[in-house]
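Usage example:
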Amino acid sequence: MSEVATPHRAASEAGDHFGLDAAFVDGVAEALRSDDKERIRKRVGGLHHADMADLIEHLDDDDRRLLIEAVREDFNPEVLPELAPQVRDTVMDALGFEDFAAALSELDSDDAIHIASKLTEDERAAIAKRMPQATRMLIEQGLAHPVDSAGRLMQRELVAVPNYWTVGETIDYMRAAQNLPDRFYVIFVVDARHRPRGMVELSRLLRSKRPEKMQDLIEKDVEPVPVEMDREDVAFRFKQRDLVTAPVIDKSGRLVGQITIDDVVDIIEQEAAEDILKLAGVGNTQVSSLYNAIIQTSTSRFYWLFINLLTAFLASWVVGLYEDSIAKLAALAVLMPIVAGMGGNSGTQTLATAIRAIATRELDSSNAVRICFKELFVGMINGLLFAAIVGVAAGWWFTDAMLGIVIGVAMFINMTVAGLSGIVIPLLIRKFGSDPADSGGVILTTVTDVVGFFTFLGLATWLLL
Amino acid sequence: MSEVATPHRAASEAGDHFGLDAAFVDGVAEALRSDDKERIRKRVGGLHHADMADLIEHLDDDDRRLLIEAVREDFNPEVLPELAPQVRDTVMDALGFEDFAAALSELDSDDAIHIASKLTEDERAAIAKRMPQATRMLIEQGLAHPVDSAGRLMQRELVAVPNYWTVGETIDYMRAAQNLPDRFYVIFVVDARHRPRGMVELSRLLRSKRPEKMQDLIEKDVEPVPVEMDREDVAFRFKQRDLVTAPVIDKSGRLVGQITIDDVVDIIEQEAAEDILKLAGVGNTQVSSLYNAIIQTSTSRFYWLFINLLTAFLASWVVGLYEDSIAKLAALAVLMPIVAGMGGNSGTQTLATAIRAIATRELDSSNAVRICFKELFVGMINGLLFAAIVGVAAGWWFTDAMLGIVIGVAMFINMTVAGLSGIVIPLLIRKFGSDPADSGGVILTTVTDVVGFFTFLGLATWLLL
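Running the assembly step on the lines above writes:
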């Protein structure tokens, strides 16, 4: 493999752990502007489709169009599923509906359906017109399934044989068949009504003698995935059972497709990554995508910030109740962010742990009470420690022992509340059927801010003034 | 499959989206206390090993021991890799070194090595003594590789054939061989010096005629993974190339093992999930594990909280510079948390997006400058919007137009700084070779707190007093 064709490896070996080699991207951009198509094709010719997709994403819009123009003749359709939707729009634009429809038709059905689902109605209609009948049907059927269902994930292409076949018959069939999927890991065994009886791993098949019956080679314990199952549940099952492939069945129990691990890897990564983005208020992939325009990014983030502003005003209102106390003793204003902030920090530690444990189903109703008590005690222990540290530091700073005692007590109360809130809030949100990562962070910091300001300023007003 | 054996499905169908069915766990716990081994075995008999592991994790320590005692005779070793290390310690204790060593010997080498790596020196020595020579050697060799390397991930068991073999010879060999792995997806083709020439997918092999040469069936574009490659790079390559299996080579280029997708799925999930935990200061798996004892959890979280306390004092010190201003106009204390907090929130939006984009290698040196400018503008746009909203609200609340203008200007400055910091800080941390998720959050909120308090109180002192 030539050096040009392995931009990732070259970068990694140079000690730069970033993705695409910057020099490589710059080289391509330069070639694009020279408008020398031969030179461009030479540079990107040997690229793997995933690297080609990365390259397209790293270029700016104009360069993306120039690149597509240069490689139009031998554009690899496999590039399309690897692109961010916003970038794919540009590529579709540059390719034109005719070529884009042709590229889509060459993909596996699950990829084609996924891409079609991201288009507008008009775009979809324009592309459907230019597709072969069979592909159009497959895509329409796929889109009829709900967005997050197994039906959307599955591919229709699979290998199924009747349960009374022998190993020999199966192998002969496979050698003769023309339209098998490119890659597959199992053969499904179905009964006369096309209901899956089980799967046979290829490694098992290869080691069996020709006269053996397929149904005797079936792996046990593989339950079919209903077409309407939520994709998170599908991902959980794949992880839990170390599956590489699972059969998908419709309501009548017929085998209608298969889900393979590569589709599930993307979901597992997305679900795990979503938590951090949601907690930070950019959980929607539309919001967090690097490829959005400035205005799009600003407006999509605005909503979350506005919610936060309302809670910030709530906390300020609490402070406002003690305006007179602060006017008399400004040290209260100096110290109050510490009480509120430390509560927020320790509560967030618990919250993040809880969100992950709920997502991986380690934390559920069967151990919730035990873990709540544990977090309460953890909050109290660290509350005591930081009460002592902050109390002594504040008393010394303002040479006022009573102020130290007041802030110490407030710290202890707020960190205890924070520890308990960090676990109870996500559990309650889950109980009401929502995702704790979505709103857990705002609710938690509102609680720790309000409790922090209220206890510290309230105690100070009562004991110091 | 009986209902008892599918506790997850039962739970999910009842509309409870948690993991193990709580009633099932309670039922087992009750049976355990009745000390009726027959009844216990009947309840947990049909469980899949992953569900058995979940069950053990959900019980408390005493019940865990009772359960192990009850199932000791037919304990399934596959349960062990699925357990959290802290829980596995209890299981090892209950099983005793003899049985634990026997169980370990039955696992694939990658799982056995992983488990051994989590033990103390003494435990490892006690177990090694009780193992067959061959297994002990495999584990020792595995542990010689660095923790995060491909060498730790790989399994030694694989199927390799010489490049001059035919399909027929390969199939005959597989039918006759006794010690092949349970499951495999490819056959490696090696030269005379055992260097991998490539892999042949089983689906390809099955469809080929017996006289065809193995080396003519090789898939292109598969580069071997060096044994010392970092596991994050391995995971990236699997995702980028949609791999299911990759060959691992030692320094002399010889094939020494294979990595399969199920090992990589765990890493992909861990790496994606780590970000949220790190940002919240519980990134170390030791810290975030649900199964730690109270004292262990408290002390491990203390360190991060202490760092945060130091930065909180820094912010308080800034406020302290303006103690006199606050004494004159306590409204400043009421409003200042809004300026600092909104800066923190908007900066965190950018930070979380950047951390994910760096982790997935979408953001790198080739597009960093463009994205920095974008985030600067996004920060300015939302800064302007919130300056207007907060300015009007504060001016109206305290019936002081000038106070509204001052807080508006401070909001604009802080949110602009926050947007830029949210992207520049993680890029800088990355540049210096650290993980932005580790310290990005603390640094960012320190910046937004200090800048927020400083601009708001500074401007107010200058313009209002």
